[in-house]
TrEMBL record:
GO cellular component, one term: cytoplasm
Family: Belongs to the glycerophosphoryl diester phosphodiesterase family.
Keyword Transmembrane helix applies: yes
Keyword DNA damage: no
Residues passing through the membrane, by range: 12-34, 218-234, 262-281
Location of this chain's protein in the cell: Membrane
Main subcellular location: membrane
GO terms (BP aspect): glycerophospholipid catabolic process
Keywords assigned: Hydrolase, Lipid metabolism, Membrane, Transmembrane, Transmembrane helix
Annotated ranges, domain GP-PDE: 48-322
Protein's recorded name: GP-PDE domain-containing protein
Domain of life: Eukaryota
Amino acid sequence: MWEVICFVFSKLLFFYLVYWIWSLLFFIMPVFHIRNSFKPGIKRVAGIWTIAHRGGPREGLENTIPTFKKALDNGIQVLEMDIRLTKDKRPVVCHDENLQRLCGVDKKIQDFTYSQLPKLQEKVEIHFSSLTYQTTEEDDRQIPLLEDVMKAFPNTPFNMELKVNDQELKVEVLKLIRKYKREQLTIWGSVDEQHCLTCRAMAPEIPTFTPAAVVKKIFFYFFLGFLPFYNIPYDTFQFPFPNQEYINYTKKYVGTSPYHKLYLLILQIYNALGLFIFFHLRRRGIYVFYYSLNKVQDMDTATGKYVDGIITDSPSVLVDYANKKDD
């Protein structure tokens, strides 16, 4: 009996070692599920693409055309934005479902037709910080239509998050992407996995980003050695940088429950292992973006971890950092 147990154990150990050897080999030199769909045709600065989160809410009124223009004038290369649908089925660029923070109105954006939408407030609380933005004469307090943003910046790459799992929203956004021939100038998706899969099924030629559930799977499969064999059907991997600003933000909006503490712990471990995970993802043709970084120290840390892009609320700070590093 003991000999049988030893024999079985030795065989299992052998197969286990062989599995990990192959896993390590394909982790370093991946050959499965290679992607390379996103080709924006823009030159990197200091090895990265510079991306303005909502246009840069620390330097302008978030998700508005003047703020997007200001970011591009400062040298930003990609605009990140959030898309929702109004009552009359028009895609607009707006992050929040409830308009209390942005407009001072305790109603949802889908309760209004576009012409009924209230103006943005003169003072707007900035996410991921304790700051508020005070509008100036340069700001436009109108929530913009996505179509108007596309018209204003026809050659600029967009990173768009569809904020609700609504088929009508996906259909309307896709119509605009195709109308303005932005298939290779747009990344779209959602934190919801099914939402992202639907986007990919509707338009496989348009790059997508990894939803939250897939980010968790990548972390889990990395420890199991299964990551090199796991099909990631997305083109960009976008991950939060766990600085103090982000930690404070999640405490405010998620709370300090045991789940939140576990989430932060996993985030810290993920970040510590980022050098290895991001290396593998990039070898598979998946671009890696870190968000939202606003301090030079954090940007320095990020650029040392095989990232392709940095998403920021402070476009001028990021562009200045990248230009100096590129000299």
